[in-house]
Structures are given as structure tokens and as C-alpha cells.
Amino acid sequence: MKLGFIGAGEMGGAIIRGLLTQGCPKEDIIASVHTPQSAERIQKELGIEAVTDNRRVIVEAGWLFIAVKPAQVESVLKEIAASGVPAKPLICMALGWTVEKIQRVLPAWPVIRIMPNTPLAAGEGVTLFHFAPETPKRARREVMGLFDGMGKTFEISLSVFDAATALSGSGPAFVYYFIDALASAAAAQGLPQDEAVKLAVQTVIGAAKMVSRENLPPAELAQKVATPGGCTAAGMDVLAASDVKAVIARTLAATAKKAEEYSK
């Protein structure tokens, strides 16, 4: 079965690379892009067929991936509708494009809304899924299986999809910010900046693996590290006094609100 990508930018390209890493044959992937130069570059870098004609992808692909910017989705959907091809699984990753909005243009199509995040490129991504009722169970399993090799997959109900997007879709940026803050604070204490970054990165990786392995609430793990009267407890006292949790809550709320606005 041929997988067709309309758009192969940062996220679309990351997904294609992930599929190739899993062993998907190069000849089973086709992508359409804006310019001949982009098509040539993608063919050289990834070895897949890249064209500038969306219609070729629309007609030839068994599954269609919409990987363009949100503002471009409507014109792509109209192009698909005008092509007259029969309904096929359509996977859209554009922010704000719900199953319902897509089906206004392509009624009864088996639409699959996804929200991947950038760590997918490192094989540690999170991909959220929401399925149209018309999407067969087999197609649901198969498409989630494609992304299982690039991290973790979660089926999310529509009512909380924007909140989940704020957490896993935007969350990597917040984690990067925290890593930068940790490293900068350590550098201010005299640690070389490059070494501080390496220590901060490994600390976050290790802590995340501990949460995953120990199956305990993160707050409980924090308490186990923070011996009363010790240096970790002193730092935790500063975090509590600064009400960091409230700041994070406002951060996620603002992110989810913006995601919701895109969905209207």
C-alpha cells in the first residue's frame, strides 16, 4: 500500500524518516511539495518519490497524509474532493482541523486526526489520535501501528484533544525551556555552559525514565529525593514558594485555549 504525503516539511518529513527507519520501503511512499527544488532535495535525502503535483499523490496513495500548514488545508481538501477519488483513510496533522471540519469538505471519509510532537524524530514521540466513526477498526490499528515505532500512541476523545495537544504537542518546548533554565542556573554557579547543558539533559532523561519505571506519582518520587533538611529540600522549598505549579497551569491553559481557537 502506498502512503501519500501532501507536504513534507518539518513534521511530515520527520514522519517519513520514521517510517523509513522502521523498514517501510521507499517505493511505498510518495510526497508532493511546492517546488521542483524541494522535490529534488527530498528525493536525494530520503530516496522517496517527490513530485509537485498533489493530484498524483491523491490518486496513487492508499492512505493520504495531510502535512501542510493549517491555512493550506482547506485548499488541499477541496482539491481532493474535486479529484473524484473514492474515500480512503485521510490522516491530518494540522492544528485546529477536527474530523468534523474535514468532513464538511469530504463527507463520510474515514478521517484520522493526529497530533504528533517533535521528539517523534528521535523515536520518542507522542502521537495523539481521534478517529471519524467511518474509520474501520483495522485502519485504526494499522495507522497507530505505524506510529508505535516512533514513540507512544494515544487515542484521545475530542473533548480533551486540545488539552492533550497543549501537554504533548507543545510540551517539548516547555521541557526545552526548563532544561535551558537548569543549565543556565548551573552555569551561573560556575559550571561550564556546555557541561551544564549535558548534565541538565541527562538529568531530565533519567528522571523521566524513573517516573516511567517506578510507576509512582512524580510528586512521591520528588519527596523520596528531598531528604528533610537536605540540599534538595532547600531547592524544593524555593519552587513551592514560587508557586511553579500555578505558572505551569497557566501555561498549559493558555496553550489549550489557543489550540481550541484554531479548532473553531
| Percent of residues in β-strands | 5-15%
What's the gyration radius in Å? Answer: 21 Å
Q: What's the helix count? A: 12
H/E element order:
EHEHEHEHEHEEHEHHHHHH
Structural class: alpha/beta
Helix content: 55-70%
Biggest sheet details: 8 strands, mixed
Instruction: Round the mean pLDDT to the nearest integer and report it.
Output: 96
Number of strands: 8
Low-confidence runs of at least 5 consecutive residues: none
Q: Estimate the global geometry from the Cα principal axes.
A: elongated
Strands ordered across the widest β-sheet? 3-2-1-4-5-6-7-8
Q: End-to-end distance, in Å?
A: 34 Å
Summarize the structure.
The protein is an alpha/beta fold and 264 residues long. 58% of the residues lie in helices and 14% in strands.
Characterization of the model:
With 264 residues, the protein is an alpha/beta fold. The chain has twelve helices and eight strands. Helix 3 crosses helix 4 (70-83), helix 7 (161-169) crosses helix 12 (244-263) and helix 8 (171-188) crosses helix 9. It is elongated and about 70 Å long.
